[in-house]
Every structure is written in structure tokens, then in C-alpha cells.
Amino acid sequence: MKMLQMPLLVLAVLFSAQGFAATAQQEKMKTCNADATTKALKGDERKAFMSTCLKKDVPQTQQEKMKTCNADASTKALKGDERKAFMSDCLKKK
């Protein structure tokens, strides 16, 4: 019986921790939703507002960063250690 309690306790802790951690997207959704409610938007107006609001300040994904930095490094014809240093710096900035 005691052997079963420990895994169940661990699972319970994991699930409860996930419930409390809101992602950046969830926070953005809350903010946009509150703004739309404050403005009393309904129907298509609300949909358009939410779409625009959620797209604002969307951070680049890691893949997008890699593509951009890789293209920049290729344009500059960087090779070896120079390229590694550039890529590292570029990925940290964006």
C-alpha cells in the first residue's frame, strides 16, 4: 500500500504544479479578453480585435531565430569559430 502512495503523491504534485503555471500565451489571452470586454466588443468585431491583439509582440520561435541568424551568417560568409560566435550572439539577442 505504501509503495502505491508515493507515485500517486508525485503525480498529484505534478498535475497541481501545471495548473498554476500560466504560459505567456495564456496571459496574453487573458489581457486581450479583458480589453475586448472593457470595450464591449461582440461578434466579428471581437474576433477581429482578439486576432490582432494576440498577434502583437509575438516572440520569434527558436526555429525562426535559427533561420534568420543562419541566413545572416551565410550572407556575411562566416565560417568556423567566427560563425559559431556570431550564431551564439545572434540567437541570444533576438
Give descriptors for this structure.
94 residues; mainly alpha; 80% helix; elongated
Record the SSE blueprint:
Blueprint: H1 2-20, H2 24-38, H3 43-55, H4 62-75, H5 80-93
Helix pairs in contact: 2-3, 4-5
Give a quick summary of the entry.
By secondary structure, this protein is mostly helical.
Model description:
The chain has 94 residues and is mainly α. The protein has two domains: 23-58; 59-94, no CATH class. It has five helices and no strands. It has helices spanning 2-20, 24-38, 43-55, 62-75, 80-93. Helix 2 runs antiparallel to helix 3 (43-55). The radius of gyration is 22 Å and the shape is elongated. The mean pLDDT is 79.
Rounded radius of gyration (Å): 22 Å
Structure class: mainly alpha
How would a crystallographer describe the biggest sheet? Answer: none
Q: Could you say how many structural domains there are in total?
A: 2
Q: How many helices in DSSP terms?
A: 5
